[in-house]
Design goal:
The longest helix is centred in the middle third of the chain and has 18 residues. With about 220 residues, the chain is an all-alpha fold. The relative contact order is 0.14. The chain is elongated. The chain is built from 12 helices and no strands. It is about 60% helix and about 0% strand. Helix 2 packs antiparallel against helix 8, helix 5 packs across helix 6 and helix 9 crosses helix 11. It folds into 2 domains: about 100 residues, Endonuclease Iii, domain 2; about 100 residues, Endonuclease III, domain 1, CATH 1.10.340.30. Bound molecules: iron/sulfur cluster. The site of iron/sulfur cluster has 13 residues, from helix 9 and helix 12.
């Protein structure tokens, strides 16, 4: 289903404002190659990017590539990623993912969504981060901020991340797919907060359904 023209126009306006407001909006995870970004993104689940950035320099020094991660004793890996939370799952997924990369892809990260989501611990969100940020491909990342802002602004009426991803692909110009999440995340952190959105200072309120409903209630 094609998004109504009005929604595509709205997306254009909203993104134009957010681009001006957050010109430096980008992925805050530190990495030097697609493999490092993949591991950092897996670690960032239920954890702040700041905390992940504290863990990854030492981690990548100890295990410089997929083969090194694949050989790592699980207990050692768990201890190395413990401070990012859910460390048992993360360590298990990272090792299984590294094993598949080392065994099937010669240690390289594949640059396609279908291959990425076959890797252990890698869902569409992680795959799209890697595609958009490491490979520069158009990819819509849907995290908690994107879910919240998409609903409040009126691009979606669901908490289903996959439905929102496809909806945003219809509403937003392809050239902006990868930038969209960084802009929504920055705006979500600074203004459109989960508990108390700061609508009074929000520069996209004229395009916001949530704000319109709130104003109508008086
Ligand atoms: S007007 Fe309020 S709810 Fe709407 S995007 Fe801005 S901060 Fe979020």
């Amino acid at each position: 289903m094609t998004a109504p023209a009005a929604l595509r126009k709205k997306a254009e306006r909203v993104l134009a404002v957010l681009k001006k407001e957050y010109p430096g909006a980008t992925c805050s995870l530190r990495f030097s190659n697609p493999f490092e970004l993949l591991i950092a993104t897996i670690l960032s689940a239920q954890c702040t990017d700041e905390r992940v950035n504290k863990v990854t320099p030492g981690l990548f020094k100890k295990y410089p590539d997929a083969a090194a991660f694949a050989r790592a004793p699980l207990a050692e890996l768990e201890s190395a990623v413990r401070s990012t939370g859910f460390y048992k799952n993360k360590a298990r997924n990272i090792r299984a993912c590294a094993e598949m990369l080392a065994g099937t892809y010669g240690g390289e990260v594949p640059a396609g969504l279908e291959a990425l989501v076959q890797l252990p611990g890698v869902g569409r969100k992680t795959a799209n981060v890697v595609l958009g940020v490491a490979f520069g491909k158009p990819a819509v990342v849907v995290d908690t901020h994107v879910i919240r802002l998409s609903n409040r602004l009126g691009f979606a009426e669901t908490s289903d991340a996959v439905k929102i991803e496809f909806r945003l692909m219809e509403c937003v110009a392809r050239k902006d797919w990868s930038r969209l999440a960084h802009l929504f995340i920055d705006h979500g952190r600074a203004v459109c907060k989960a508990i108390k959105p700061r609508c009074g200072i929000c520069n996209v309120k004229t395009d916001c359904d949530y704000y319109r409903k709130l104003s109508a209630q008086g």
